Amino acid sequence: MLGVFIKHFLPLVSKIKTLYSQINKNISRYVSFDQQELEIFNSLLEFKTVPKKTMLLQEGEMCNFEAFVVKGCVRKYYIDDNGFEVILQFAIENAWVSDISFSIYEDKPSRVFIETLEDCEFFMFSPESKEELFRNAPQFERAFRILMQRSLAVTQDRLFNTISKTAIEKYLEFLEHYPTLSQRVAQHYIASYLGISAEFLSKIRTKIAKL
Amino acid sequence: MLGVFIKHFLPLVSKIKTLYSQINKNISRYVSFDQQELEIFNSLLEFKTVPKKTMLLQEGEMCNFEAFVVKGCVRKYYIDDNGFEVILQFAIENAWVSDISFSIYEDKPSRVFIETLEDCEFFMFSPESKEELFRNAPQFERAFRILMQRSLAVTQDRLFNTISKTAIEKYLEFLEHYPTLSQRVAQHYIASYLGISAEFLSKIRTKIAKL
DNA sequence: CGCATGCATTGAACTAGGACAAGAAATAAA
DNA sequence: TTTATTTCTTGTCCTAGTTCAATGCATGCG
């Protein structure tokens, strides 16, 4: 009996500890928290395992989570008027994904989809838990403000690139910026992220390879 | 003596009151504050009048302000590798402008310029004042987080449009979204904002006019 | 007032990137 | 292993948008 406990339960406890320390490290990046605050935070998170090719959010639904990617890879995308997918974000280890856009144009339903591309592990955070967190440990308000601010900076930078750079430049910059991602996800997803057609990306790649 | 006071000073006091109520209304949009909190907030703001065509921020400088536009219009823009301006934001009455990007790639100097397009009135907010505000009235952390969140949603939406829509669609959507702006700023600025050439925007406009 | 500088328009030639189609390669499924 | 499905490549033709003039129109400014 004790043997079973040691063999199965202890490693699990140890894994969970590692997972919490992963997200705690992330949230403490710009604001430092004491042990008690982190425990409040951790108690409000829900750990979740999701197989690949699973939809976390469908068009028109209300997004009732913020997800921290412990492991795996997801894409967040829109579908435009002609039925084309436009990928807004890849989220891999230690990134956050959620849809915040619904709050803007309250009348229009959100067109955002969020889908896992690999088997994933998440910490999920509901709006209610978030409110409770802010009530019990107001310092987190600050941490989330800074996270938001960084996302905004990244998005602005990407907007600038999208407007001012050629397809080749965008692709090279993508490779530099997300070196592992080109191995992990299909080319046509990268094309969709860069705002170019899959065929053209392929042509770019052969051109680059010939240099 | 009293006559002078009544004639000059009282109207000024009244104007200042109106100005404060304008920014207070804006900051209270998603979080409500009591009178005392608003007074702390107001005491940390600096009111500033700036003539048109003035640079508030130059490339490479550190952005040491967040500006609330009381009156007037400014543009925030990057310059790309070929020397072309790309306008990231127009800020008019009741909008905030600042450069938050410097915090991301700490090594590279910021390429952002902020310039007034009309005679402007601002409330300026320094990073130090902001910290002091958060210390003395932590509720503001929340308000600024939500402002950030809205900016992010707007920017994401714009990124999506930039990628997925044609120039005509983008222009029509711009007109709908910022109806007054097309009267207030030069066409080529709007073209730069939409990510198209000034000539092509002109062609689009004549095409639209003929319908 | 005339002049200069910036702004909008129009046209002609050009190009980056898209759309479509058809095959090759790779991955999954059976 | 064979088959099926998805992904990647390559070629041809096509178009949205650019670039580079040249010209007319404003607007400010000495």
From TrEMBL, chains A, B:
InterPro entries: cNMP-bd_dom (IPR000595), cNMP-bd_dom_sf (IPR018490), RmlC-like_jellyroll (IPR014710). Residues 48-135 form the Cyclic nucleotide-binding domain. Keywords: Kinase, Transferase. It comes from the Bacteria. Pfam families: cNMP_binding. The keyword Transferase applies. GO terms for molecular function: kinase activity. This is cAMP-binding domain of CRP or a regulatory subunit of cAMP-dependent protein kinases.
